[in-house]
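Narrative summary of target 7.
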Amino acid sequence: MSLGQHLVELRKRVVIALIALVVGMVVAYFLTDWIIWAMTEPIRVVAEQRGESAAVSLMYSTITGPFDLRLRISFVVGIILSAPVWLWQLWAFLMPGLTRKEIQYTIGFVSAAVPLFFAGCFVGWWVMPHIVELMAAFSAEGADNLYEAKYYYDFVFKLVIVVGVSFVVPVFLVALNLAGIMSGKAILKSWRVAVLIAVAFAGLATPAADIVSMLMLAGILVVLFFAAAGLSMLFDRRRAKRARAALGPLA
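Modeled conformation, tokenized:
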């Protein structure tokens, strides 16, 4: 295909992906009531714990705040709901330029990365209420906890997405190994740095006083790292075995 044909093909894929995104946003908009209710559950827990001694609620600082919050939620959830469509469009655009082996690696990468990402999002969503409740415990007696809706939304979704992405990092290590960039032994040798990074990330993603959540998140990340190192070493052995078989007596 010529450059012009590639651009026409790209425009077609982008238009289809945008249509799917808009449809996903419309569907997500009708789910925003439930999503906001689930997001604000920790606030209701804090309000129940503190009783009538202080006001605890979600606050909108602008007139358009409620609509803006629903629009933000619809956009993020719409991206998730339309993911099968726009991922397929991206795949369909790139697939003609990939070899059969690269296609197999890509399918394996996506098959592993997607479940891990959603598992990480689930862990982030599980940790989030504990963070809100723990931070509220540091409020002085009689103080009000008024959470600005925009910043509360940013806190929740950034936490969920960051933890979700962190769960996919080990898959990238395996991908680098399959590409021949890093060996399994090289990945395993960096275990000290990986453990340090996992603990530091868990400490940043969770409150310093919530040691249990921090250790659980760090432990999951460390286990995923060693699993990636083990898979990479297994792939290295298989490649070495195939190379010896190909060489025959020359091995």
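The longest strand covers residues 56-59.
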